[in-house]
Amino acid sequence: MAIPLKYNYLSLLKRRVSTLMTVFSIALVVFIFVSVMALANGLETALIASGDPLNVMVMRRGSGSELSSAVSHEALQVLKYLPGVQNAAGGEPIVSPEVFVIVNLPRPDGALANIAVRGTSPVGADLRPQLRLIEGRMFQPGLREVVVSRTISRRFPGVRLGSQVKLGKANWNIVGIFDAQGTAFDSEIWGDVNQVAGDFSYQDYSSVLLRAKDAAAVKELVSRIESDKNNDLTAQPESEYYAQQTWAAGPIKLMGMFIAVVMGVGACFAAMNTMYAAVSYRTKEIATLQVLGFRRRSILISFLAESMLVALVGGIVGCLLSLPVNKLTTATTNLQTFSEVAFAFRTSPQLLLIGMIFAVMIGLFGGLFPARQAARQSLALALRKG
Amino acid sequence: MTFGRFIWKNGTRNKRRTILTVLSVALTLFVLIPLVTFVNELDRRLEETNSARLVTRHAVIWIFPIPERYRMQIEKIPGIVANTPLTYYGGVYVDRAHTDFAQYSCDPQTLFDVFPELKIPDEQRQAFINEQTAVVVGRSKADKHGWKIGDRINLKGAVIPVDLELIVRGIFSGSPNEESNIYFHHTYLNQAVEAQLGLPGGLGEVSTYWIRADSPASVPRISQAIDELFVNTDKPTRTETEKSFQMSFVSLLGNIKYLIATISALIIFTILLVTANTMAMSVRERVREIAVLKALGFRRRRVLMLLMAEGVMITLMGGLLGTLAAHFVFRLIDIAAYTQGSFQRLDVTWSIIALGLIISGLVGVVSTGVPAYQATKLTVAEGLRNIG
Amino acid sequence: MTQTLVEIRNLVRTFRRGSNEVIALQETDLDIPEGDFLALMGPSGSGKSTLLNIIAGIDKPTSGTVSIGGIEVQDMSEDELAEWRNQNIGFIFQTFNLIPVLTAYENVELPLLLTDLSSKRRREHVMTALKLVGLSDRVQHYPQQLSGGQEQRVAIARAIVTDPVIILGDEPTGDLDARSAEEVLTLLRELNEHSGKTIVMVTHDPRAAHFAKHERHLDKGFLLPPGVKYVEEQFA
After folding, report:
1. Using one digit for the tens of pLDDT, what is the confidence trace for C120-129?
2. Out of A12, A114, B57, C96, which could bridge C151 as a Cys pair, Cβ 3.0 to 4.6 Å?
């Protein structure tokens, strides 16, 4: 026969303050875990989701990032007409030569941030469908016009639609605001490739983006470019390029796991303390239950349920606390390009689920030994003690 | 019996509870300490800087190079004692995991004049100057990789796509961060670039110039003078103190300090809740005893102190356990290899241990303070009525 | 003539219970001579414990004066009272109230920690007190290793170790079996007769009261005149 849960509920209510404190300490552990993991998640998304696997990115051999790469105009002409490059409706190959530079923008606190400026073309924009213009219009080739991400326009005062921003030597008009849905492009400013190259004295392109016809063509293009020793170029799917830059998420995840596991064990001990106290306060009640005919197993399950109930509530509170953190934007530096990467905390249903499982584990392990002690309690001893 | 013994006996009366509390405090400190150490490491970098040293770099960002010819113009400015270019090579030694040090090309003639804190025997210094493929390495890295004078170090280019074959001619000692660097001839790097990339004359550019001024007082004047020289070129410079240069690296990590501070605060708050809960339980069970002590003539404040001392004793035991565990465990982790040399160590110093103990002590004071205050506030008659 | 040790005048003690004012003690006057052994008797709620607590400096009167050994205690601050209790009062509780984590020796030593006696002098006092209560062989025992009677004797040793001017007992035999109760009461009587200690004891056990020199009865907050006993209410 099972002991009704109401009994546990009432006894928790009786020790209100202690119960609340236990709930909150478990909630905080879950909150820290979910938040740090959401941070790593967000950083990963910012970089991984940036590339399309059908886009092939060509850079100079040996350059780890677009920043140190150079691709000549002659090389572009060769790349354009490689077999496997998809042609647009008009017959033109879908190719976007791009220039990637870093500029300084003043943060609200006065410090200078390194911001990436991408000189690209309408084709370049088409190759990144995750980028959507939400205000204004696209930049016009041949003009000092840029579109900026919503993230940047929010982070930097004065970077607004219709205002001007100083990039390099000249002022550029901001004609549009875009949203790249959490990808790396959300940390970039886009302008016309020739205008950017001219202003920043770039003779070469930084990279060339090719659209392959299909997955097989991607492989073919990569191996063809890699094996051509004449032009000293390297090629990889755009998605791979960004995936390589996600290593920073690794240590953050590691840190999150470390904090969560160690703190989780600590919370377990805390729960154990509370439950042991609960058991010892209720020595008489347990004895009474035994006299009434409840079996030891029912008592064990009852106490375990009580501890899990506390942990479960803690887990729910922790997850709820972590919800406002979701979408909160922060920034770090992409250590390959040394430019700022803005990214948002991303909590996912899986992450919340893991957080809940975590809480339940705390409740389970924290309650197990005290519950066993309650179940094994000697009836005679308990009644005498009272 | 002394008060100390009385506190100890009270603190350990429920052994299981005390052990569980000590362990949860210890675990928390074990988590907290590396976070604090990381921030401390960032700060220490700034402290180790020399206030008479300047760094000249590209005005936008240091990864943009500046011309080699700037050096002649810079050195005409009075007040400069020594100047060496440093160019970040960023190569790979064996593989990424082994590359736990940074590699720079320099001017071997002036390197040790710019960094007088680096100690090297004179004959090694001379040998380094005399041979173009020579390299000097930091003591700690030489020990770790087993490098001896005359050994070869082969590096594979990554940032600068040329490979280098170097011979160890000197081993220098300095601070742990400094000892994590190796230096070789800039002219050798140029040669390799000319030979392997076909660029006549080599790079023609350097990453930075490191300059030692005759005194910290000349620093603002020199930095202004240098930047004025190149302000209208297409490669303008920014000259700043070594400290502010290092600071720009730290700021690269973005809000990391803020993030860590937030996490740390949450962690401390969690442990506060946990210990407050335990201490509240333990005080509540003793309301009668507290009344008895007062009846025997113990002043209220003394009882409060005894209870707080008990709480502090428990949290301090946990704090000591956690910080010492952190001290010994984290030095076993080769953090340099994980971060490709950006971080050399997680060195839990004695001052961090002290900080950990202060935090745990305060946690003890705050967590015991509230329940103890409430319990001692009861009059003796009220306390004696309490069925505990 | 013996001197008056405790002099209580116009003592009133009221409590607030919710919005009601409950009178625990009404206009009480009481003189206790030095060397007396007084039993305060009365049913539950008669005010006897309140009276005892006020004499002990554990509770404060609402009005009136309490003078003990010539010192008025009703206006003392909490801290002054604590110090005064330590030097002048030995208190014995119904439930012994020994500290469970301390040995018999340490329990007796506890009030001496507040004095500036050296540990050697403390040892002498503690051993004397334990010898007086007949527990010299139980020095290192913990309370749970002792019988109820032994526990109460340790408590008495704790009460006398500071050599107080007055020993107060609140139902000191209430939790004891008849045999142990007799032992404890005999001990108290010896302390009174041989050591000249003034003792005031609250009890509702008439047999316990026989050990005292005098009895005073309380009922419904009134201290009845000497020789007048309260009448046990019969259960209907």
Report:
1. 999 999 999 9
2. C96
